[in-house]
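By way of example, we now present a protein record of this kind:
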Amino acid sequence: MPTVLVSTATGDTGRPMVDHLITEGLQVRAMVRKDDARAQQLRDKGAEVVFGDLLDFRDVRTALDGVQRAYFNYPVGEGLVEAAVMFAQAAKERDLEMIVNMSHIQSRPHARSKATQNHWLSEQVFNWSGVPTTHLRVTFFMQWLLYVSHLVRYGRYAMPFDAGSRFAPIAASDIALTAAKIFAHPSEHGGQVYTLTGPVEYSHQELAAEVSRVLDRDMPYEQVTVTTFLELIGLSDDVAKLKHFEAVTLDQQEGLLAGVDDTARRIVGQPLSTVQEFVNDNRALFELHYPGTAA
């Protein structure tokens, strides 16, 4: 039975991917940074847990030893290309059957965002390695809504993008399921570049209205600066995200995230999650909860 390494296994795509891979009958090795409750949950699901840093070549080689397929995902920040080089080299040494690489929908060599440009460079690194790689060029996650859930609880919906900019948000669980299906049938998908979006395109203003409808409250769309947005979500010192979000604001204005692609739905063979379903699944995070009082 093939074993799949899931890097960033406690992340938004990693956690559900472990479940989906096990359902597909594959063995899972989950790579995490530290041994905590989230790591134990992965063990409880049946995954083998290993510890390591994607920027440590020794850790990466050890994590890939004995696996046949691997998921590469790296957060917005410094080190992406270096991590991709080490991952690709270790995968080549171990003669992996497949890599699934998480990338950006607007991946291109002349991207304004260094993070996005580095995703394009990482795609080239994996292609050069000779290991069959499927690149997932993904739009904004629905999880963006969770970044502002603490604001939504008090009736405020704020984002750093133009109200009319359009995109089709996708749930991380659907990305994870897409990757799991690809890992289960590597010969059908190796060497492909897939654009993954959700099922419905919205402007940011329309998305705010849809969240308002589902939660039955009035929350007009509020556009704030990127600096203010990062302050609101507690990341005011994250320079990499500041530069990336400023660049993506311009990408949105140019329509680089617009449109709906049917690839994810076709691969998973079922409808993708809607915004209504996502908000309802996470409703507790969007609503205030008052402590009970004695009669």
Q: What stands out?
A: The longest helix spans residues 114-129. The domain at 3-139+172-191 is CATH 3.40.50.720 (Rossmann fold). The chain has a mean pLDDT of 95.
